[in-house]
Amino acid sequence: MSGHYDVIVVGGGHAGIEASHAAARMGCRTLLITLSVERIGEMSCNPAIGGLGKSQLVREIDAIGGLQGRLADRCGIHFRRLNRSKGPAVQSTRIQCDKALYREFARRVLEETPELAIWQDTVEGLYTEGERVAGVDTRIAGRIRGNTVVLTPGTFLSGLLHIGSRSLDGGRLADPSSQSLAKTLRVLGFKLGRFKTGTPPRIDGRTINYERMEPQPGEEPPPGISFFTKRKLRNQGMCYLTHTNATVHEIVRENLDRSPLYSGKITGTGVRYCPSIEDKIVKFADKDSHRVFIEPEGLSTREVYPNGLSTSLPLDAQIEMIHAVPGLENAEFTRPGYAVEHDFVQPTQLFAWLETKTVRDLFLAGQINGTTGYEEAAAQGLIAGINAARRVKGIDPFTLGRDSAYIGVLIDDLVTKGTNEPYRMFTSRVEYRLLLREDNAHARLSGIGHRIGLLRSKDFHKVEAVETACSATIDRLSRMRPAAAKTNQVLMSHELATTTEKLSLADLVRRPQLKLDDLETLDKALGELAPVVKERVEIEIKYSGYITRTLEEIKKFHRIEKVMIPEDIGFKEIPGLSNEVIEKLETIRPATLGQASRISGVTPVALLALFRYLKGSHPDEAKPVD
Amino acid sequence: MHLDRLQDVIVAPATPAGVSAVAMVRVCGPQTLRMCDQVFKGNKRLSDMQGHRLVNGLILDGKQIVDEVIAAVYRAPHSYTTEDMVEFYLHGNPIIVDRVMDLLVDVGARVARPGEFTERAYLHGRIDMTQAEAVLAAIEAKTIDGIHSAMAQLRGDLSVKIEDFVSRIKTLVTNLEAQLEFPEEDLPEDSSAPVIKELLREVEDVRASFRRGRSLRQGLSVVLLGRPNVGKSTLFNALLGEERAIVTPVAGTTRDLVVGKMQLPGGQVRLFDTAGLAAARALPDKMAVRRAIGAANRADFLVIILDATSGFVAADEELLKLLQTKPGVVVWNKIDKVKKPPSLSEKSVKPLPLSALKRTNIDLLAARLTKEVSCKEGDVFFANRYQEDQLKRLAQKLRSGLDVAYMDMRAKELREALGLMTGADHSTVTEKILDDMFTRFCIGK
User: So what's the architecture of A462-549 in CATH?
Assistant: First the structure.
């Protein structure tokens, strides 16, 4: 660590890893400052990457040239693809990871990234020059200057841990939090809120009676998440399913008055999507049982993670409760469960490229923006890192639209609407869900990743090769029309009505009952296709009707999304806008009419007035309504 | 988003409903002239005309004349909305107005919402804020909650029914999304298909009651369809009780549409005999087939005629498909010539066996038509065009939602149905659904 940096990234979590890697890969002299080098890439909560809505983010990160997918595959010990039968658009891969390996590989990849330096220290404040940030002030090294700063402090921003009535300062158990950074942000004029999240106790696996639980094996062959993984994946860990029961619920109820969640001690808003066991039992009193998944923390440890039992009850109550769960009667704790409260910056204070509106060259990513989840954090880290690098190089900011990526939806939601609870990605938030799938993330985004200088050429060529093979195959299948007699053999073997027409193979694949594999008798070449090509081709053909429809919708969406709002617009001068609406528009400062339309409280009437004004004052910019 | 809608061509009657000397139908939007040319035949094509000109001509439904009209052409930006616009001056008969609206909707126009012409006039800068304020305030609600106030303006039973549909679709979507987002939770099994089917049945019931209302006013249109020589004209004559259509043993005797009126207890039927549907080679045959298909598309009710002597053939399959989108009945004709009509149980239709020639079971078919025209308890006779259009689209969405390969597709159709009924945009719908989901289900680990 020495001298002046292009990009300084504060925090070595999932956002910080992507941000520092992206910026350095794009040629910027980058410094990653972390509280502990050993803790880079720590999975502070559950030991898994991916899952519904989240694996789509990871695939997109992978497509653009980020790390999370590769790391998850490298450290994966249990692989599953969820929702296989419900449609490709809602299929998601989830990988249980070995946490120690994850840390090890994350650190190694960063250490091997040219232009990237790592420094262990505590950042106590931001150094600003006028309206822009110019470096950070650290406890040990003092002032470190940089052109841009990416802040990814996670739960460490004024983190406070709760176990029963005990409160400990910290961002994670045994790791101190950062208090002064939040103070600096307040001084700079940021509005901060407070969120709460939690984690279950950890258990010594040797003390679990697995006989009383249902094994949940990984899927064979193991589905990976990164397009670029070459090594063979192996399921090496086992998960188990057990349930809470009336006794567990009784114990929780008896101890509720000692839970900081219910005693009024915790003020932060919790995650509806990851409720603590206290929440589940209070809010769903009629349910007599909840699922608990036992997941390994890694191969080199016997410690396990009881997913579903997040709690901040006092330790004695935690132990009593856990012992009532079937299979955990004699469980020995290795660590207690706890709740953690942390500060966050209301993300409406950011532009879509994750730079703050008040302090130039300062970027925020991850939980500081009010999100929850490793994947959400990584996605933002990637975008913040890319944009810090582009700022250094004097290039326009890079953003992804709601129509091109889950990442686009995530960030647009955050910066346009803000959030009043920890934000988690869901597939249902994505209006073009049938188009933005896990399987086509690379087809959608690798070109962009390569163009901005992040995805390596050799990786991009691999994507290109698969896409070329896909379009060639789709083309061939649309043209091949075997004689009806041959087609009928296939149809009859699936008990389908026969035809007199010469149907194309693509027509056949569109039938819900038929798969590409069923057509090998009609087209021998299908047998030789790589599985990845086969999967892509089948989905593209089966979804073609919906894809066409979605593309039409996107065309309509663009008509207002592409109506730019000039940066210097005075909303006050627009006739017909109420004061409330003017205030909202001034705060968010939407870049397009489309973004303005998504701000809550901006009524259709206000929107029409805005549109009308834009059309009048900037006829060219407001034109594209066609 | 609402501004998307600026791209649609919209159509609405500009004169009050009811009989009058002259009625006016107004069409505007980007493709107006091209669309209107598809239904209007004058000395000049409307798209070749200058603005502020009148032309005399015919509104045609295929070859059939609907009305003799005057069309006024306005060229952008010199019109009320500043877009291309056409006004048709028709004879003031509600039936004609309805048919002209139908024709325009068939070629791609959308029935305008109340105030939509004025909204456009404002948006395009034609009128100013003060002029438009009153109209703007009435522009539809952005949120699902807003729907209640919008709905309150509708009258009586229909609004209650529609609100009920909306709340049930919302529950469906929430359940479906919960299934998709949380595959590992112990949620109730997916039961969306039967629920959608039931909902669709009820929507179709309401739509059928619109049709009955219309049949009270103008007669229910019933179209006889079948392959050549299955005995359509014989049946037509049998139903009317008179020899109106020419019947010969030669396939393809009927070419033009033949219309007859049937008076039934409870209402009137306009019965159409059509040319047999077969792969036609000669031009006149082709035109006859096209006309028959056109009539089928506009019909309120279909009678599909199968020939019991030849049994069910592949071409009949296409005919049965029409019943997926339209009410109707299937009959086996010529049962006097066979011992027993073939079974069609695997197609899940139960044709009514009859003989047009021997007049066997004609009374049963007539009874079926009577049921279709008779009023029922709770019938909604008067919906405005916008509501009719909305329920038609809803039925389409529900139907496509049933006919999908995967649940993610079903979710899309249902969410669109919800958007259609409430006017709410995607993110408003999502917020409501997520709220609902986390209130109803204990999910998340």
Answer: Orthogonal Bundle (1.10)
